[in-house]
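subagent[fold] <- orchestrator: predict structure for attached chain, return tokens only, no commentary.
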Amino acid sequence: MPAPRQQRRPPFSSLPLGKNDPPYSAWGLYGPDDELGALNLLTKDCLLEAIKEIKTGQRIGLNLPLTLPHPPSHKRLPVTHKITHKAPRNVHDDVITMNTQDPMPVSSWAYNAILPATPVAHQNLLADKGKTAWCKEGIAGRGVFLDYRRWAESEVIQEDLLSNFEIPLSGLKACAKSQNVTFKEGDILIIRSGWTKGYLALDEAGREAWAERIPVLAGGMATTMEMAEWIWDNGFSAVAADTIAFETQPFRTNGEPGGLEMTQLHEILLGGWGMPIGEMWDLETLSEECAAQGRYEFFLTSMPLNIPGGIAGPANVMAIF
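subagent[fold] -> orchestrator:
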């Protein structure tokens, strides 16, 4: 059931808001100088309502270890961790190097932009539309969990968890119905595809083979017009999943003829709406807890790593029941 829409929020059919703006973008919706994008939906009233989801005090971290996946995909450099002894004092420091896209990142609208491909345009975006503004207050609200993998298994839908299977909108709707989930504007949508389950079952050789696959294969949300419209109409403030790219990879060679064409969900959500995308979140314990409690809503907090002008960073995310 779609969330009720605020009066100021236009329908999906009206996008883009400017005739010369990129497809499906909502630039200017919150003013010309806005840096929060979809996080504007996390109003104080929304937060106070979300706090009501805390009933048992159970806390669950949704963060994979920084060292996973190892080795990383997309030819990214792995995390290195060195402990230095500050002799002659008996104290120690951590020295860590990492690519902020691995692991469990939350990506800002500077990561995948739908802008003219000019150096000036992209440099301006990197300077002005990174995730710095998101770190001033952090991200907190009502998390809503769709355990698609548990639902698919109950329906005897068999998929290779490390393949590039597509999760259709019909599957998400059926999952939500089975969980008796309804949405509210400002919700943070979290979807379990089963990627983490499949990846953690691999041995060392299997993980190396997975990282070396070209193109990278990953299941995720179907890159379709109806998926984009559903995300917009429900008024989600952010989305996340346990898979490596939220939407399936590789993206369709021919796009979606008659629909999104060659536009990706990443471009629309990040560059068009300023909507954070969380990836590679560890949702296995959350899946068990939600099933045990019979509820799929909770209070969610995230404080991304505060790198001035940063593109992405560890989500530092936690669910509280």
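orchestrator: received. Logging for downstream: The CA atoms of residues 86 and 92 lie 6 Å apart. Confidence is low (pLDDT under 50) at residues 1-7, 107-128.
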